[in-house]
Amino acid sequence: MRNIVIVGFMGTGKTVVAKLLAQKLKREFLELDAIIEEKEGMSIKEIFEKKGEGYFREIEKGVVRETSEKKGLVVSAGGGVIIDEENFRNLKKNSTIICLEASPDTILKRTGSNTCRPLLNVPDPKKKIEELLKKRETHYKKADFRIDTDGMSVEQVAEKIRTLAQGL
Ligand code: S3P
Fold first, then answer.
1. Distance (Å, rounded) from C-alpha 75 to C-alpha 59?
2. Whose CA is closest to atom 1 on ligand 1?
């Protein structure tokens, strides 16, 4: 059974949706960022601050490689995971990749008061969101399915993926 890997920009609801979907499908749930934090004994924010983004991406790559060997999981991947070609190739082996999308305003609203995302801890987060979305667009488009989550509840998004997964 192929994994279902949920990708997409920060604040698109990957983790809450993946958790609910795993419950619905009675599958094991994994969150890649949580695995990285456990391995490193630090929060993502601390890893960025103390070791830098390059280090974080290396650890992330290793975790993606390990997870890609497994089957039958529902996985929530950090927003930068499929930007890397090697990560994308590894995930494609055993996984159906679903990308959650949202408008910059929705992303800003959902990530607004939270300071745990180092890439958005900047004076003008909306501008940063727009820039990053533009830069990453072609990569997110490579997912097997894309879902626009604007105006949708977590339940609705999870249900939509469940329906998609039935046909796989
Ligand atoms: C990142 C997204 C974050 C986390 C890190 C980098 C990104 O995960 O992996 O802060 O590059 O988009 P979420 O998408 O779960 O917030």
1. 17
2. 79
The alpha carbon of 113 and the centre of ligand 1 are apart by a number of angstroms equal to 15
Q: How far apart are the first and last CA of the chain?
A: 10
pTM for this model (two decimals)? 0.95
Residue nearest to atom 16 of ligand 1 (CA): 10
Q: Which residue, judged by its Cα, is nearest atom 15 of ligand 1? A: 78
Q: pLDDT tens across 46-84, in order?
A: 999 999 999 999 999 999 999 999 999 999 999 999 999
Q: What is the CA radius of gyration of the chain?
A: 15
Containing 7, the helix (H) or strand (E) segment is strand 3-8
b/e per residue 66-81 (b: at least 16 CB within 10 A): ebbeeeebbbbbbbbb
